[in-house]
Amino acid sequence: MPCTDVEAEVRTAARWARGLLEKGAGNIGVVVVDLQQRRLLVERVFREELDPESLLQLEEQEGRFSLSLGASLEEQGLVTAALEILDVGQRLDLDRISFLLRTPYLAGSQSESQARARFDQRLRAKRQLSFSLSYLQTLLAEVRDEQQGPLLPEFIRVLQTLAERLQDNRKRTLGEWVGRFSELLLAVGWPGQRPLGSVEFQGLKAWKENLLAAVVALEAVSGPVDGAEAVALLRRMARETTFQPESASGPLQVVGLLEAGGLEFDHLWVLGMTDDRLPAPARPNPFIPLPLQQTLNLPHAGAARELAFARLLVERLSVAAPRVYFSHAHKEGEVELRPSSLIAQLPEETPALGSPSAPLSVFPHCSNALESLVDEQGPALEAARVTGGTALLRDQALCPFRAFAHHRLRARALDQAEPGLDAATRGSLLHAVLEGFWRQVGSQQALLALEEGALKAVIAQAADKALTKFFGGAADQPLLRLERDRLCLLVGEWIDTIEKMRTSFTVTDIEADKTLVCGGLSIDTQVDRLLGERLLEPQLPVYGCEVAAAELAAVVIANVRRGECAAKGVAVEADLLPKLAAFAGSRAAESAGIADWPALLAHWRRQLDVLGNEFARGHAAVDPVDYQKACQYCDLAGLCRIDEMAFLAEETA
C-alpha cells in the first residue's frame, strides 16, 4: 500500500483499523517499523481517527488503542516539574521562573493561579532573560493585595525554601542527596494540590520506586558529589528510563518492530517499510574491531547481517495474520522515499478504510447541520472619548478584530525577553534622544551655528539624559555604553543628511497634546514636534486632518536608520525635505485619483471618519486588509485563529 507521505501513511493505517473496529473485529495489530522516532505522530493521528472525543476531555480516559512504546520518564509532567525544582540555582532564566509559576505540581498552584499568571506577565514586561533569586524575591515582596499583604505567600515560601537549600551545598553521597531531594520536594508542596490522575500516579510511583532507587544503587561506584552533579545524574537517568503506563490492551495494539516478534493477529498492518528503514543501515560497535564483529556475526556489524535480520522479520510478520498489509511513504518532507526491496514483490492493493474522523477533516463535509455563529459585532461604545491614540485607528484599518481586541479587550501577547535591548526599547531611546536634542537646539539656524564638536556634545548630552531616564544608575553598564555610541552615531547621521539639508524651520512646540475627532470617536494624540511649517508627527498622516490645507506643508515618516536615513511621505511642494517630491502630479496621486493637496486631506478625513465610526459601533470582524501587512507580525494570531481559517478554506476549495 503506497502512500503520499508519512502522515498520510499513518492516517491510512488508522482509518483501516477504525473500519475493522466498526465491524466488530478484534485482535488488530499495527506494527510501526520506526515507532521510536514516530511515536508522537502515531499517537496523535490514531487518537484523531480512532478516539476523537478524547481530544476534548480534560481528564484521563481509557483509550481505544494501546501504544507499546513508552516515553521517557523525564517527559512526564510530574517528573519534569520535580527536576526543574531541584535544579533551581542562584540565578534563574525566565523560562524556568515561568514554568515554576505555571506548573500545577507546586504548593499554592490552585489558590494562587491567577496571581501567579499576572506576576509572570509582569516579569516578561521587564524583558530580562534571567533574574537572580534574591532579586526575584524582592519583586515578589513588592506585589501586595488589597490589605497590603503579600499576594503570593505560597510562592514566596517556596522560593525561600529553595534559597535555604542552596546555602548548604556540601558534597554528599548519592543516598544522602536522594533523601534531601525527597525532603525538599515535600517542603515545596510537590506534587501539588490537585488529585493525581492514573498516569500521574504511575509516574510518581516510577519516580520513587524505580528512578530514585536506581540512583541510590550507584552509590557503590560513586563517591560524594555536589548538588548540581546529583541533579544532573538524576535528570540523565530519568531521560534514559522508559515509562510505560499500565492500561488495558483493548482490541487494537500499536507496537514496534521488535515487540511484534512472536505475536499473532487476526488483522495486521505494517507501516514504515522504506528502504532506508528496513533493512537498517549497519551500525558496528566503534569499540570492537570490525573484522571481529563480522566474524562473530554480531548485531549491526554489517549490511549482510542487517539484510538477513530484516528478511527474517518480514517473513515472520507475513505469517502473523491471515492477511497482512505492508505500507510505505513516497516522501517525508522534501525527501523522496523508496519502498523496501523486501516488499517489492508484493501486489499493490487498497484496503477498505473507515470514514475519516479527525475533527478538521470531518467538519467541512459533515452531513449534519452545524450551528453557525458569526461573532463579528461587539457592543457599541458608551463613551465617545477613547484612549489608544492613533494606534487605535491603525489597528482598525489593518483589521477590525485587531482594534477590538487591543483597545476594547486589552488583549496583548506576553512580552518576550531577548539578549540586549529589544527593538521597542531602542526605538523609545532614539525618540527620547531626538526630543532632548530639539528641546535644546530649537531651530535649524541654531543647528547650523554649532561647530562639529559642539554638535556632538549636544547629541551626547541628550543620549546620556535618555539612558538615565530609562535605566537610572545602571546607564554606565557596558551594554548601555554601546547603545549610547549607537544613538550618537545614528542621530548625528540623521541631522547631517536630513535636518541640515532642508528648508529653514523653527521648533515651536514638542509633544503637543491634541484631540482628533474621527466619526464617533474623540482620540487623544500627542504630536512629537511642530515646526515652523507645521510638519506633523512623522508616524501617521492622521494629524494633518485637524489642520487647514493652507497651513499644512507635508506629512512624512522619518526613517532613522544607519545608511538609510530618509523622510518618506507627501508634501504640498517639492524639496521641502531632501528627495521629497510634490504630491500633485505624482504617481501616488494618479493611482489614487486625487488631484491636489486639499483633496488628499479631504480623502484622509473621510477614511478616518469611517474607521472611527466602525470602532465606535463595535465592528470586530476578523478581516485583515492584507495578510502580510496585518497578520505577519500581529500578536493576536492565537486569539483570532486566522491561520486555522486559512487552512479550512484550503481544505474546502
Largest β sheet strand count, sense and barrel closure: 5 strands, parallel
In total, the number of strands is 17
Q: Low-confidence spans: pLDDT under 50, at least 5 residues?
A: 532-540
General shape = globular
Strand order of the largest sheet: 3-8-2-9-10
Give me the Rg, rounded. 34 Å
Q: Please, how many helices?
A: 24
Look at the structure and give the mean pLDDT.
84
Share of helix, binned: 40-55%
- Portion of residues in beta strands equals 5-15%
| Helix and strand composition category | alpha/beta
How many angstroms separate the termini?
27 Å
Word description of this protein:
There is one protein chain. This protein is α/β, with parallel strands linked by helices. Helix content is about 45%, strand content about 10%. It is built from 24 helices and 17 strands. A 5-stranded parallel sheet has the order 3-8-2-9-10. Strands 1-11-12 form a 3-stranded mixed sheet. A hairpin with a 2-residue loop joins β14 and β15 (about 520-530). α16 (about 425-440) packs across α18 (about 450-470) and α18 packs across α19 (about 480-495). It is globular, with a radius of gyration of 34 Å.
